[in-house]
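Work Package 4 report. The design task specified in the project plan requires that, given a folded chain encoded as C-alpha cells, an amino acid be chosen for each position. We show below one input record used in the internal validation round.
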C-alpha cells in the first residue's frame, strides 16, 4: 500500500494541506511510526517520549514519507515521480492511459 494524495498547486501548497493530518495518522498508527523510527532508534518506547521527542520523531517520519515512501505532492511532481524512471515515451503514455481508464472505472463503480 502506498499513501497517496495528488493536490492542486505546488508541493509547498500540498504539503501545507497534508502534513498535519498525515502526522496525526502516523501517530495514531504507532506501528508505522515504530518502523520509521527503527532507521535511527532500535528500542523505542513511544510511551516514554517527551512532547519534544515526539515532535522530532514525527518530523523524521513525515519527511521520510514525503520524500521517498509515498506519493504526496502537487500535479507536476506527482506525475514526474510516477513516470520518470527510464521508460520510453510510448510505454509511459500507454501506462498513463491505463491509469486514467482505471481511475474512470473506479469512479463509475463508486457511484
Amino acid at each position: 500500500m502506498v499513501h497517496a494524495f495528488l493536490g492542486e498547486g505546488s508541493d509547498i501548497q500540498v504539503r501545507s494541506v497534508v502534513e498535519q493530518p498525515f502526522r496525526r495518522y502516523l501517530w495514531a498508527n504507532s506501528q508505522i511510526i515504530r518502523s520509521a523510527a527503527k532507521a535511527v532508534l532500535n528500542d523505542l518506547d513511544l510511551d516514554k517520549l517527551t512532547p519534544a521527542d515526539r515532535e522530532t520523531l514525527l518530523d523524521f517520519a513525515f519527511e521520510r514519507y514525503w520524500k521517498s515512501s509515498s506519493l504526496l505532492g502537487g500535479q507536476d511532481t506527482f506525475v514526474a515521480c510516477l513516470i520518470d524512471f527510464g521508460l520510453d515515451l510510448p510505454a509511459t503514455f500507454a501506462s498513463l492511459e491505463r491509469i486514467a481508464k482505471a481511475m474512470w472505472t473506479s469512479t463509475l463503480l463508486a457511484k
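The CA atoms of residues 15 and 32 lie 19 Å apart. Validation will be extended to a larger panel in the next phase.
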